[in-house]
């Protein structure tokens, strides 16, 4: 079931991928749930996501943590937005991204990604992400992400 928040978050992801920049690597990510500062997604690990050992590349895991936790954070804005048809993400920037790699996941296996907004203040947000191998339920990686939030001025 698609909720209005989930629909907006999926649209934001689609726009990122359509820009034809680095985010294009995320085109196989399927966002399954979003709202209240949380986001869940899945992705089948493809050859284009692998390292020379045929496991998911660590840089992709870091990218998943960065982008998907940012969208989890955006879901808090979506819920308070008066106009979902013209929603745009609030400006923010990463100030810290930490990844703990626990075990590999191979090409052809499915990642389950769970993102949480731990705290959103006036100027900072703290996010966490767990990535699991959906096939066996084992934790693959854990990430933390800190973002600075920029407020819009009256001239914007």
TrEMBL record:
Q: Where are the transmembrane segments?
A: none
The cross-references to InterPro entries, in alphabetical order and at most eight, read: ACOT13 (IPR039298), HotDog_dom_sf (IPR029069), PAAI_dom (IPR003736), Thioestr_dom (IPR006683)
Q: Select a single GO molecular function from the record's annotations and give it.
A: fatty acyl-CoA hydrolase activity
Q: What is its main location?
A: cytoplasm
Q: Where in the cell is it found?
A: Cytoplasm, Cytoskeleton, Spindle; Cytoplasm, Cytosol; Mitochondrion; Nucleus
Question: What SUPFAM superfamilies has UniProt attached to this entry?
Answer: Thioesterase/thiol ester dehydrase-isomerase
Q: Which GO terms describe its biological process?
A: lipid metabolic process
Q: Boundaries of each Thioesterase domain copy? A: 55-138
What keyword terms does UniProt attach to this protein? Acetylation, Cytoplasm, Cytoskeleton, Hydrolase, Lipid metabolism, Mitochondrion, Nucleus
Reactions catalysed: decanoyl-CoA + H2O = decanoate + CoA + H(+); octanoyl-CoA + H2O = octanoate + CoA + H(+); hexanoyl-CoA + H2O = hexanoate + CoA + H(+); a fatty acyl-CoA + H2O = a fatty acid + CoA + H(+)
Q: NCBIfam families from the entry?
A: unchar_dom_1 (TIGR00369)
Stated family: Belongs to the thioesterase PaaI family.
Q: What does the record give as the function of this protein? A: Catalyzes the hydrolysis of acyl-CoAs into free fatty acids and coenzyme A (CoASH), regulating their respective intracellular levels. Has acyl-CoA thioesterase activity towards medium (C12) and long-chain (C18) fatty acyl-CoA substrates. Can also hydrolyze 3-hydroxyphenylacetyl-CoA and 3,4-dihydroxyphenylacetyl-CoA (in vitro). May play a role in controlling adaptive thermogenesis.
Name-wise, this protein is Acyl-coenzyme A thioesterase 13
Taxonomic classification, please?
Eukaryota, Metazoa, Ecdysozoa, Arthropoda, Chelicerata
């Amino acid at each position: 079931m698609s909720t209005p928040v989930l629909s907006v978050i999926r649209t934001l992801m689609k726009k990122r991928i359509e820009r034809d920049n680095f985010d294009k690597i995320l085109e196989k990510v399927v966002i399954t749930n979003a709202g209240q500062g949380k986001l869940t997604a899945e992705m089948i690990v493809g050859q284009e996501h692998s390292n020379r050992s045929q496991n998911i590349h660590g840089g992709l895991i870091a990218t998943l943590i960065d982008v998907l936790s940012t969208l989890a954070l955006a879901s808090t804005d979506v819920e308070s937005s008066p106009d979902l048809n013209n929603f745009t993400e609030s400006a923010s920037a990463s100030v810290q991204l930490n990844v703990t790699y626990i075990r590999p996941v191979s090409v052809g296996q499915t990642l389950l990604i769970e993102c949480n907004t731990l705290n959103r203040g006036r100027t900072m947000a703290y996010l966490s992400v767990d990535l699991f191998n959906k096939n066996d339920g084992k934790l693959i990686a854990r990430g933390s992400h800190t973002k600075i939030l920029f407020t819009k001025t009256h001239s914007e």
